[in-house]
Every structure is written in structure tokens, then in C-alpha cells.
# Entry
Amino acid sequence: MENVKIRLGGVPEHFNLPIHLAKERGVFSSRGVDLEWTDFGGGTGQMTKALRENEVDACILLTEGMITDIVKGNPSKIISEYVTTPLTWGIHTGVKNDLMNYRDIFDKNYAISRFGSGSHLMAIVDAESKGHKLNKDQFKVIKNIDGALPSLESLETDVFYWEKYTTKPYVDSGELRRIGEYNTPWPCFVIAATDKILKEQPDSIIRMLRTIHDECDKFMHDDTIVKMVSERYDQKIKDVERWYNSTEWAIHGWVSEKMMKSVIYHLQQAEIISADEKIPDLVWKRK
# Structure
């Protein structure tokens, strides 16, 4: 039987290494899945767009971003949690900026990868949790970290939320200054797939998921991973050790109902989705 092609996307970051390793070793192929991977440097907003436009079949993306986009009409479902621990967002500014204190960021200009992305949503959720409301004109779209660096350096923007360990090399090199951190109050990454692929290839999606879960389980018990991540992603061993030992990946497809309610509550509080918005089915119900 010919392998079924599934187009999977995710950020070019160390969280997705279990999948790359499995692909390199031919594990997906051995289970009847021809996995085609796409890097999305623009993050969650870029991926929700790709799912809507059928450029990919499935993506690994931020929980809050995917839920928001399904509520807003994305014809996709969450099929599994992926990283079950919270994401630590580093809150950064440019080294020439006078901004020194996390408490002073809420009236500043924010660099975001795009509207609806994690860098946009978490800035709003964080501000709301501290009693502040951000205005749309405070946000400047910079696409990705390569766009953020010159924007912050030129003082066009003042604040940039991005995953703490991904930005750590830029902090170490003196290109960015980290002035705070914010942990998402929920598991950070989920896997989502289009309704189209779920209808056409449910068995292949299940085989892909089982492979990912098995590989994540192995990844969490492999003593060589810290050194490998350090080399592949140009990060200091100490930083990788800290990241690896505070991160847990899902090893089954269960999605917590309570977690979904918590995310929706925070998104409503931050007025990212309205309180009277009808919440569609968010999670794939396997037959």
C-alpha cells in the first residue's frame, strides 16, 4: 500500500525536534505516512492562515491562537495536545531603549509577528491580567524575529514577546534585553488538522499522531538530547538543560476540556473573542 502524504507545519524551534528525528529515521514512512514538513518562521498566525488556505493538512501551534482561529471560522480541529507544559514568553526590548522595567511596558509600542499570533495574543492576555488594556495602534507587524530585531533597535517598537529560550542567544549577544517573563496559564502547543484531511484520511492522521506520541515519549527519556539540541539550535548547554527539564510533551491524544474552558475564559476577558460568541466544536471527535 502506498504511503499517504500528510503536510505538517510548525515553528523552526527545538520543541519540534522529536518530529524531525522521527522523520530522519524513517519512522513515519514505516507506519504508512509520507510526512512533508514546512517551517513557519512567522509563528501561529502564519499557520492558521495556511490551514485555512489548505497549504498544510496539520500544524503544531500555540493553543490560544488555534482556539481563537477556530472560533473565528477556521475549518480545523485540535487533534491532540503537543507540549503540555506552559510556554515561557520572554518580554524583550532593544538595547538602546530606555525601557528597563516590566511594569512600564503597557503604554508602549509592541512588535508582533502578525495580528492573531502568539506574540499579539499573549501581550493582550498578560496586560489584561495586570489590569491594563492595549490598543490596536500600539501593535506593529514585524513578521518574525528577523523583523523584530531592527524594529526594536530603531525604537520603532519597544516590546516584543517571544519564546524565552529561542531569543536567549540574542539576549546573550547583546542584541536584545529581556525585562520580564510571562508563563501561559495553559499547555502551550497543540496539534490541529483541517476538517478536510480529518474527513479524507482519518486513519493516516491517527498513525501520524501515534508516531508523534511515541517519539515524544522516547525524546523525554533520551540522555543525548540536551547536547543535540545545543548543537542543532546553537544554544548553551545550561539553557537547554533548563528548558528540557521544564518541558513535557504529550504521549496520548487526550485534550483537557477544562484547559479549553480556561483558554476561552482568558480570551474573552482580553476581548480577543467576544463573550457572546458561539463556541464551535474545537476538538476532533474520533469515530
Q: What stands out?
A: The CA atoms of residues 54 and 67 lie 18 Å apart.
